[in-house]
Please model this.
Amino acid sequence: MNNGPKGYKASSAPHSPLIILAVMDLKAVILAAGEGRRCRPMTQTRSKVMLPVGNRPFMEHVILALAANGVRDLYVVVGYQKERVMDHFEDGVAYGVNITYIEQNELLGTAHALRKAEPYVNGEFLVVSGDNLIDERAVGELISAPADNAILAALQEHTGDYGVLTVEQGRVKAIIEKPGRPCAGILNTGAYKFSPAIFEELKRTPISERGSYELTETVSQMIKEGVQIMAVITRGVWADAIFSWDLLNANSLALSLKDSKITGEVEDGARLKGHVEVGEGSLIRSGSYIVGPASIGEDCDIGPNAVILPSTSVGDSVRIGSNSEIRNSIIMSGSRIGSGCIISDSVVGSSSVLGDHLVVETGPAVVEVEEEFLRAEFGAILADDVTAGSRVLVHPGTVVGTGARMGSGTAIRGWVERESRVV
Model:
């Protein structure tokens, strides 16, 4: 049963009451139907919108940011793993919003998904991606844009995997979709403000080479026809995770939205430093050392003498054994980490069991994703229900699929397929 959001810290730049009153009737469509294929294997068991950063799913951050700006009526387009999304958020009351779910039976792109919302929208509205991290300030800037049509943009050093905007005097002149090379520029975040006229434009969206109908194509078509679209360059928080290791950066940003809150038990001799959240029912045993920003969920058992270093999120019902060290990592709910483990720059999926003295090395690596070789720097990505014995060595850039089993004393590297056995 969902009990609503915990430990959320509002933006340091709150909006005036007049602005909030002005948007009380504004509606939002959240696009949450896709899988997020390039985030596999973490999306083998959940959609990307349900991947946790800062100890809550991506889409929960989106909903909280909308609610903080007075946007209450939300229309969520669901598809892949829809039951998991609907079970978690229910009707939205726990988050101060009203959620209506719209099903996209065929995953035919973002423009196709948005068309599903036409019967529910009769005025100006927002469109946001459920699988991005966005904060209250960024949403407020988009709402306040003095234009019928606006794109929330962000300045980024590396934009090769995103749409890049050409902007003149605050107006979008073109969208260069995924230039494919590292470059600095104005990135399209995938958040928009539209008038209802967008639905007529959506009906004329051409089909892409991938056989889908994309919202960026719709917007590009509008620009070519002379429709003015404003670029709103945000000063708020926005992040995406194209690949599973990108979750670590989003997690670090998400933790910056949290404040210190200790509702669990911290034994004498344990030390907490900086912004640290410890959930109800959790126990931090003597000798443990936690440096924030860090978040420990509910009903966890940490230590004794465990070390948790900055930018680490630990989900609910997690056990971390004595003398283990976790840094810049995500440990999802229900996992068990043995004693004497060292885990850095890694993601550990739900209900995984890692034996004593497991070590995850971190560093540069080349990772294969959908027949493409990518350079990255991280420790390991371990999907849900992974089991590892004692004294396992995990080399940098290792990706392990759901349900894989690794025997004691093994050394692993590269991509380990789902349900594999490594002995």
In short: Residues 261-422 form a domain with the UDP N-Acetylglucosamine Acyltransferase; domain 1 fold (CATH 2.160.10.10). The radius of gyration is 22 Å. Residues 58-68 form the longest helix (11 residues).
